Amino acid sequence: MKALTTTDFHFPGQKSVYHGKVRDVYDIDGDLLVMVATDRISAFDVILPKGIPYKGQILNQIAAKMLDSTSDICPNWKLATPDPMVTVGLRCEGFRVEMIIRGILTGSAWRAYEEGCRELCGVRLPDGMRENERFPEPIITPTTKADEGHDMNISREEIIATGLVSAEDYAVMEDYTRKLFARGQEIAARRGLILVDTKYEFGKRDGKVYLIDEIHTPDSSRYFYADGYEERFAKGEPQRQLSKEFVRQWLIEHDFMNEPGQTMPEITDAYAESVSDRYIELYEHITGEQFEKGADAVDLSSRIEKNVSDYLSQR
Question: What is the tens place of the pLDDT at every residue in 171-194?
Fold first, then answer.
C-alpha cells in the first residue's frame, strides 16, 4: 500500500510552499493556494514516522463535501478539487487562532476537568459533570495556532486584548463557529453520528472573513455513534468513536504522549493498514457513500502534479 508522505511539486505560478504537519500548501501567484492532503498523520503535535494509505484522499474529500454543504452559512476558500488529494482555493490571511467548539465533555477537556479544572479558555464549567456528558450548550475553547509545538489554550478576552483578532472579526468568527457546528451536528445525526467537538480556522480576504482549511474531518473533529450513546454514558462505559482519538489512545497505551524521555512506538505496516481501514470506515459513515480508492495509487505524485497543473493552466 502506497502512502504519500512528502511532496516537492513545481506548479505553474508557484511562489512558495509551506509544509505543515499533514498538509503541504503551495502559493500560486500570491492569490491561490493548492492544499495537498498528504498521508502523514500527527498526534500529540508530532508527525508519526509512517504514512497512512488513502488518509489524505479521505480527509480532502470529506472536507470538500462539508465545505460545499455549509457554503450558505459563510464564505469559504474552496474553488475546486482537481485531484482526490488536493483542494485549490482562495489565499486568505489566516487568523492565528483556531476556534474549537465542544458539545460534550471528553478528550483533553475531560482530562483537564478530571484534574480539577473548572474554567477552560475563560469558559466556566459546571461542577459534577461526568466523562462524555453533554454541555448545557456547546462551548467555544479557542487555541493559538502554533507553527511548531503545542497550540495553547486562550480565552476570547485574551485574543482580543492581545490583538490576535479584532473584537469585530472575533464576533463574526464566533457566530460562524456556532452555526457551522449546528449544521455539522445535523449532518452527523442523519448518518447516525454525534459531532462531539471540532475546530474551525478562519482567514480574511478583501475585508471579509472566510472559512479556510478542512472542516468536519476525523482529523479535526470527534464523532460518537449515536446508537448506544445514552446507554454507554449511563453505565460509564467508553463511547464508540469515529475520530483520530483511537490513534492517540494507541500511543498512550504504548507510553507515548510526546513528553520528555518518551520514545515513539514502532508503526508497523500492519498497524498502518489497520488505521487506513479505520479512516475508510470514517469516510463511509460520515458521508454515507462508499469510498472509492484513487486511481494510479502507485505514483501519487505524478498524478497530483498532472491534475493540478492541468487545472491551473485552464484557469
Answer: 999 999 999 999 999 999 999 999
